[in-house]
Amino acid sequence: MERTENDNGASVTQPAEGNPVVDPLLRLTGAASDEPVNVPTTEASDSSFRDGSDLHEGKYFNTKKDLKRKLSDIAMKGNFEFRTRKSNRSLWVIECIDPNCSWRLRASKIVPESTKFVIRKYVGVHCCSLLNRNANHRQATYVVIGEQVAPQYVGVEKGPGPKGVQTFARTKLEAQISYYKAWRGRKHAHTLIRGSPEQSFHILPSYFHMLEKLNPGTVTRIEVDGESRFKYLFLAFGVAIRGFRYMRKVVGIDGTFLKGQYRGVLLVATAQDGNGQCYPLAWGIVDSENEDAWTWFLTQLKEVIGDTDELALISDRAPSIKKAISTVFEKAHHGACAWHVAQNIKNKFKCADIMGSYWSAVNAYRCEDFAGYMTEISHRYPRVAEYLENEVGFEKRSRCHYPGLRYNITTTNMVESLNSMLVNARDFPYVALLDVIQEKMSKWWNDRRIVAMAITAPHTPSRESEFRPRFAQSNGRHTLQLNPVTYHVKGGELEDVVDIFNKTCTCKEFDIDKLPCVHAIAAAHHAQVSVYSLVSPYYTKEYYVLAYGETIYPVGSQSQWDVPNEVATRVVLPREVKERKRGRPKTSRFPSVGEFRKRKNRCGKCGAYGHYKKKCNSQTGSTEGNQPTDVPV
After folding, report:
1. Under a CB-based contact definition with an 8 Å cutoff, are residues 292 and 302 in contact?
2. Residue 124 class from Cβ within 10 Å (0-12 exposed, 13-18 middle, 19+ buried)?
3. What number of H helices and E strands is found in the chain?
4. What pLDDT sits at residue 253?
5. C-beta separation of 390 from 221 below 8 A
6. Cβ–Cβ contacts within 10 Å for residue 87, how many?
7. pLDDT at residue 263 in the model
8. Which residues of the chain have pLDDT under 70?
9. What's the rounded Cα separation, in Å, for the pair 270 and 255?
């Protein structure tokens, strides 16, 4: 028996003289052994077909990987499979999975030193049975799927989920894949676009170097342990640091968990601009919300924003945060988030009906009004009043008792807004996450700069909108001048005294918010003084423009980085993480104390979620017992 190749490169068997070829299948079935068997050839017959590709002998590919990707794509679209006969660094030989089929390919390097591959032999005709062709083939690996679907994740934070990847493979690649393979393909696509978590730790020093180089004044820190394993990082853009001088000195701090392979917690410190928008100051990534991590983060924050009596820090009542603030900041005042206190009250005392009085007490400007609301709470729920006075403390959550100046900011809602903004990016590698943060801040600075430059009024739009109703209410007030700067304003439920020089009013609203109250506006009209002169400069257009006057620049492609050798060679290893439990990793956090998540309604008629039976537009009637058509994740 001799094996040779025909003119088209197909391998055929020539019988030795006097020895006819016998099909092994005929031997098993007992057929006559002297009947010759037709050997497959490359000539197209009625049962054969071509793979529909543009491959040919002599075609070049830059790498073996490119050639394999091309063949996998051809196989998936042609619904056939191939197997590898031989493969090494310089050779790749494949053939159809059916041993009786003539389809095959042989490729090798042009020269041993090159990475380019050329097709040496190629037979593009199949003569295999349809039973050997299917859409669930071995070439539809998660790597191939990930490479094909990767462009859909460029420039977006979320992209298609596993079911979307399954749909993509079915419609674009004509391949049927399992949910698990789609999940792995999606994960591989994320790695191709955003890099691997391990690579993120490796390039972190170079990334921070480029941020500091392109954005002067930017402060970055990386903390590692004795084995060079990552512990903490800190980032504050120079633009935000310089712009903080035009912000009210109230900073909200909080953390949110990360969902990537190495987990961790993202810490945020943000102010609020004169238009009521978030103004992120600093970002940090730590292992967890513990006292050591918060102390390290707040120490870095103190270096960029300082520590003064004017500074107010607002957070929840976590013991680790409270202790870290008292350790790091000696002059700043700490305030509790009123929303978190409210949730604790509802969860601990089961008294949601008292919330109206609670929020009235929180927002009261005068201590007399605060005492009245607390008396009401004490009569109905004495234990709640005792909790607020002894455990929380009036000075921590009450506007009128706060020793510093927190303006109208009573919650950490501005921090929660930033956490919600990054909900889809929290499973990214660290550098990719920081890239998203930089892109968001760059866009905000540009958009808000455009808005600020277009303002024609002396103050920000949100503050101008507060003035209009106050102007209308001030018209009916009777004003009596007591001395050159003091005025007695009558009208309404109370009579108040305004000092337009020291910018105070006995209603305390002018004192705390630094915006003229109704009484101050009436006094300004009587004194023929511009009301705008009484407004804090933090609300002016000038400060608003200056806060966003600079630009935050991206670091660009890694191939364009210019990094010193001592930075590029710095070793930052991934942190050690606990072995995960079996099953799908959790990507949603447990609700906070008192936090309730809204549940989607299920229709009793069609089984879908999001509406009631009375509002159902389905014409199919009752489908009791059927599976819902749209199940929430």
Report:
1. no
2. buried
3. 21, 20
4. 93
5. no
6. 12
7. 86
8. 1-49, 51, 130-137, 578-601, 607, 609-610, 618-633
9. 11
Task: Provide the Cα torsion 413, 416, 421, 423; round to 10°.
Answer: -160
Q: Which residues contact 450 (CB under 8 A, 6 or more apart)?
A: none
Per this entry, what is the length of the chain? 633
Tokens, residue 51: 């793979």
Rounded distance, CA 33 to CA 37, Å?
A: 10
Quick one: which H or E segment has residue 119? strand 117-123
Write down the pLDDT at residue 31.
Answer: 36
CB burial string 393-421: b at 16+ within 10 A, e below? ebebbbbbebebbbbbbbbbebbbebbee
Q: What was the pLDDT predicted at 604?
A: 74
DSSP state of 244: G
Cβ atoms 441, 237 nearer than 8 A: yes
Contact 405, 312 (CB under 8 A): yes
Do 20 and 34 form a contact (C-beta atoms < 8 A)?
A: yes
pLDDT at residue 9, rounded to an integer: 45
Burial of 369 (0-12, 13-18, 19+ CB in 10 A): middle
Q: What is the pLDDT of residue 599?
A: 56
State phi, psi for 617 to the nearest 5 degrees: -100, 5
* Secondary structure class of 284 (helix, strand, coil): strand
> Which residue, 475, 513, 473, 519, is CA-closest to 500?
519
Q: Which helix (H) or strand (E) holds 347?
A: helix 338-349
pLDDT at 54: 86
Residue 519 tokens read as 């009484």
> Tokens 């073996």 identify what position?
64
**Token pair in block for residue 141:** 């690996």
